[in-house]
Amino acid sequence: MTFTKTTEQSSKYEHLEKMSVQELLFNINQEDQTVPLAVAKALPSIEALVAQIVAKMKLGGRLFYIGAGTSGRLGIVDASECPPTFGVPFDLVNGIIAGGDKAIRRAVENAEDNATQAWIDLQEFDINSNDVVVGIAASGTTPYVIGGLQACNENNIITGSISCNAGSPLSQTAQYPIEVIVGPEFVTGSSRMKAGTAQKLVLNMISTATMIQLGKVKGNKMVDMQLSNAKLVDRGVKMIMSEIPVSYEEGSQLLNQLGSVRKAVDFYNSQKH
């Protein structure tokens, strides 16, 4: 297969070391502004993948992200933020990175080149046909990710992908590929920049749209969020006050008693006030 790795092509900017800080920031920002436009072109592909994830989760399935380096870390970030934001179990959305948890902070040499390890990693979670696995790789060529999706395909597990090159091996492997073509990076080949931003935007969309479809948001509020600090408790009380006619003190008591905004509002309404 031949395809153009636009993420590896030379930056359209030259002599970066001669630019002032102002020039550097302006030019990086100019490049960053192109990313949402590239994501917009991929919306139909994102929608198709989300529909599959929602359907599988309604059957008791889970979502897995697999990736290496920046891509793996972004998957872990998205997965780890779902429980506190939407009040879902910690094992509903899972992020797996090549090289294991130690690779979250430091690169693990050659971890991304192992084409069989991702399936081994997924099997530790008792992966099954109710689950969905999304491979993340800016280049679309990472062996760890491609190998993982190939094994999933062979085991009747739905696969998706997020990459930033058109027609990559990863896209050819995934059943529901998403391609966000952001073009060359400001610093040549530094795919943590525009490509990373694009992946983060897509991951935000996937998890948020899925959770809303599963009923984890009411109106526009995170009614099932975990109340893990004072800021979130205060936000929760104000959410309750916006839904039912109670004072801050009454809302606080309800939240403390029942543990979530949704339960507090439902309890109040059930009392036929």
Structural class: alpha/beta
Enumerate how many helices there are, as a single number.
11
Gap from first CA to last CA: 67 Å
Instruction: Give the strand tally.
Output: 5
What general outline do the C-alpha atoms trace?
A: globular
Q: Biggest sheet, strands in spatial order?
A: 2-1-3-4-5
- Share of helical residues: 40-55%
Radius of gyration, in Å, reads 21 Å
Uncertain stretches: none
Order of helices and strands: HHHEHEHEHEHEHHHH
Largest sheet: 5 strands, parallel
**Average pLDDT, to the nearest integer?**
95
Strand content: 5-15%
Please describe what this structure looks like:
This protein has 273 residues and is of the alpha/beta class. It has 11 helices and 5 strands; from the N terminus they run H-H-H-E-H-E-H-E-H-E-H-E-H-H-H-H. The protein has helices at 21-32, 35-41, 43-58, 69-86, 117-123, 143-154, 169-173, 194-213, 230-243, 248-258, 261-270; strands at 63-67, 93-97, 132-136, 158-163, 176-179. A 5-stranded parallel β-sheet has the order 2-1-3-4-5, sandwiched between helices. Helix 4 runs parallel beside helix 8. The longest helix has 20 residues, at 194-213. The protein is globular, with a radius of gyration of 21 Å. It starts with 20 loop residues before the first helix and ends with a helix.
